[in-house]
């Protein structure tokens, strides 16, 4: 069940909110947990028992680990990590590994292994990272964990952010789970509803419209793809994935706000970035921080204790450590996004620019000024998104080749006025935070709008809600892009 489906907007959400607000406070968490289980079971019923078993096991391990001493504490931690990563590898990557194994067998004339393909449970990547966040925080003694099983289960399963984040750490939400009565205000309900509608509009009115043309362009045979059309498709997808995913995050944050939770922000105008390094501070921020805190920094620290302080091929030790840690992190980041070589290359592509940023590119871009730096970074991002979007790696290279050969071709894709209108709107709202005073205004709108502003945006939100529902019912359902991951 997706937030942008008619069944969620017209049935599940209204019924949930009515019952949630009518129930006494002591029953709200129980009802939210049951609603979240139902919500997840709607999308992945076969995975509910497996997920439930892993949640119970994790909770028991954390309770023992909290009071355990080394080495028992370490073994309990490793047990939980192996279990969670094992489930992720099995459900998300086993098909990929079997396909690669069969490819090797074919090279040597062997018979491919028969394999019943495994369906990917929606949201498994985000659930795994959220569970690992908790076990890591408890192991490092930065958070005591949850005393009640139902609180931990709600932390993992809360339906606003279960499928695509934001990735929330226990310290950011544990107190809200146990007591959020101060957040139970009409202002939060209205602000949350408006934030939800903003996200819904990003998804339905912008991302889905662009996606229709993007799919047509990327499906064209190479002989029918002109350079201009390739650039149009690549840039349109760059905007599509941003409005699709940031739209989901806005909807999740808005839904949570309506019921008293404050989730962390996940996007901050990423296409205004002046470098790839800055981009990863603005794009999917909870994932970026997760990789930084739980992979990059521990790996860099571990290497710093093992590598002697001397130069290697002219590189200082700290730079060598940075290169190894950054490449490893982005390799795994790419593979996390999907079980395909194109995602691995996309991750390494970003890792390469992170490294040359550190070596010399940041200094150069700073000298060019903000405008050229933003344009250069945007160009790099467009190229990266082509690799990310293409069906496979050869298709990505063919598409990129078409972009840079600057040739013409006959094709059957008609770029109508609706596409160009939404395309221009996407450009404006992707970069409008760069206009002076817009960013502070957005922050005030999300956090503490005036009563007059609240009434105005509430009316607009209702009108846009009707428009979105009408669009969904007339055009059909389009899943969120990040549901694949």
Keywords:
485 residues; mainly alpha; 18 helices; globular
3D structure, described in words:
- The chain has helices at residues 6-22, 25-43, 48-67, 72-107, 124-139, 149-157, 170-178, 186-218, 227-258, 276-282, 285-306, 317-337, 341-368, 370-389, 393-405, 417-431, 438-447, 451-475.
- It is mainly alpha-helical and 485 residues long.
- The longest helix is centred in the N-terminal third of the chain and has 36 residues, at 72-107.
- It is globular and about 65 Å long.
Topology at a glance:
Layout: H1 6-22, H2 25-43, H3 48-67, H4 72-107, H5 124-139, H6 149-157, H7 170-178, H8 186-218, H9 227-258, H10 276-282, H11 285-306, H12 317-337, H13 341-368, H14 370-389, H15 393-405, H16 417-431, H17 438-447, H18 451-475
Helix pairs in contact: 2-6, 3-4, 3-5, 3-6, 4-5, 8-9, 8-16, 8-18, 9-14, 9-15, 9-16, 11-12, 12-13, 13-14, 14-15
Summarize the structure.
The chain is mainly α.
End-to-end Cα distance: 16 Å
Low-confidence stretches: none
| Rounded mean pLDDT score | 88
Strand elements, count: 0
Proportion in β-strands = under 5%
For the report, how would you describe the main beta sheet?
none
